[in-house]
Amino acid sequence: MREILFRGKRIDNGEWKYGYLYGIWEQGYILWGMTNNVPNMVEVDPETICQYTGLTDKNGKKIWEGDILEGHLDDKFPEDVTREKVIWHESGWKTEEPGCVDKEYLDEFDTENFEVVGNVYDNPELLEA
């Protein structure tokens, strides 16, 4: 069974909040979580809300919508890096590389060969060619 989790950047301090999407409050969204067994709700920027894909990268780190994955796919050229952005597209979690129109399903190959190096909100420069 897949965990349905969300994250978003807090309105008050810009920090990431992880938990459950609760609803709309004064045009913002609330993420609900537990802190020391006490319900904790905060308003987050709706532009930053991302869903957990249910998958982890090669290091066991959770992969979220909007994350940037990086992999070194050719041992002969370790300086060559491939970066992909995680998106929801049509019928599933996919990745897209900068400058490419094709989108590939996020799958076992990605989870075994790529690691999360940032996200499109905090590190957009990682996707620049």
Please provide a written account of the structure:
With 129 residues, the chain is mostly beta strands. The chain is 5% helix and 50% strand. It contains 1 helix and 11 strands. The chain has one helix at 108-113; strands at residues 6-9, 16-25, 28-35, 38-44, 50-56, 62-64, 67-71, 82-89, 92-96, 104-105, 115-119. A 6-stranded antiparallel β-sheet has the order 4-3-2-1-5-6, with no helix packed on it. It is elongated. The N and C termini lie far apart (37 Å). 20% of the residues are buried.
What secondary-structure arrangement, pairings included, does this model have?
Layout: E1 6-9, E2 16-25, E3 28-35, E4 38-44, E5 50-56, E6 62-64, E7 67-71, E8 82-89, E9 92-96, E10 104-105, H1 108-113, E11 115-119
Antiparallel strand pairs: 1-2, 1-5, 2-3, 3-4, 5-6, 7-8, 7-11, 8-9, 9-10
How far the N terminus sits from the C terminus, by CA atoms, comes to 37 Å
Query: Low-confidence parts lasting 5 or more residues at pLDDT below 50?
Result: none
Q: What value does the Rg take, in angstroms?
A: 16 Å
SS-based class? mainly beta
Q: How helix-rich are the residues, as a percent range?
A: under 10%
- Count, helices: 1
**Can you tell me the overall shape?**
elongated
**What's the number of extended β-strand segments?**
11
Strand content: over 45%
Quote the average pLDDT.
Answer: 87
Strand order in space, largest sheet: 4-3-2-1-5-6
